[in-house]
């Protein structure tokens, strides 16, 4: 717990973010590069109390990258 500075999440299905945020140190960053079709829930309490951030990268759809 609290051991990583950053995580790159490439999972493109709905999944819980809280377990990933629990691994981040204060000021840690979770970068999303997978895009699920349904919205993900943001665990706001974990973000605010741990001074953590969720960011995303510009991604292309699979059809465009092939």
UniProtKB/TrEMBL annotation:
Keyword Metal-binding listed: yes
GO MF annotation list: metal ion binding; oxidoreductase activity, acting on the CH-OH group of donors, NAD or NADP as acceptor
Keywords: Metal-binding, Oxidoreductase, Zinc
InterPro entries: CAD-like, NAD(P)-bd_dom_sf
SUPFAM superfamilies named in the record: NAD(P)-binding Rossmann-fold domains
Record flagged with keyword Metal-binding: yes
Record family assignment: Belongs to the zinc-containing alcohol dehydrogenase family.
Name of this chain's protein: Alcohol dehydrogenase-like C-terminal domain-containing protein
Organism: Arachis hypogaea
């Amino acid at each position: 717990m609290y051991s990583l500075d950053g995580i790159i999440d490439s999972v493109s299905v709905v999944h819980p973010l809280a377990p990933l945020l629990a691994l981040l140190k204060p000021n840690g960053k979770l970068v999303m590069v997978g895009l699920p079709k349904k919205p993900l829930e943001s665990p706001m309490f974990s973000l605010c109390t741990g001074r953590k951030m969720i960011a995303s990268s510009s991604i292309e759809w699979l059809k465009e990258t092939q």
